[in-house]
Amino acid sequence: MAAGDLSPARRVATLREIENPGDYCGPITGYTGPDMESCFFLLPNARSELVCGEEVEDRGGQRAVHHVNFPPHTYRECPDGSLEIRNSIGAMPWWHGYLDEGNVWREV
Q1: Residue 52 and residue 31: Cα distance in Å, rounded?
Q2: Quick one: DSSP state of residue 50?
Q3: Which residues 6+ apart lie within 8 Å of 58 measured at CB?
Q4: Cα dist. 8→18, 31, 36, 72, 102 in Å?
Q5: pTM of the predicted model, to two decimals?
Q6: What is d(CA 56, CA 68) in angstroms, rounded to the nearest whole number?
Q7: What's the pLDDT band for 54 if we cut at 50, 70, 90?
Q8: Contact indicator for 86, 73 with CB cutoff of 8 Å
Q9: Bridge partners for 37 per DSSP
């Protein structure tokens, strides 16, 4: 992936349903603090060659489920049922971007 690339996202109901790159769940309250909301996700590149390599090793946790907290991030529930997340989501150096309305990951 590169800046400007788009990848499909899929919102699921529970953490256990996060299976494929781009899957996300949330907001969930109480996981990282009693009143803190969070969104959990697999990065869109979670199974790419750059992340996994032929050895299928986890390079820096990029294959793991990640999360962002609200705040400092913000989210908007969209009419189509997707989430839009702002500030950018960074997992440097492998991925940096946004979750946009319409279930789309956008790399910057």
Answers
A1: 28
A2: H
A3: 52, 64
A4: 14, 26, 27, 24, 9
A5: 0.83
A6: 25
A7: very low
A8: yes
A9: 29, 70
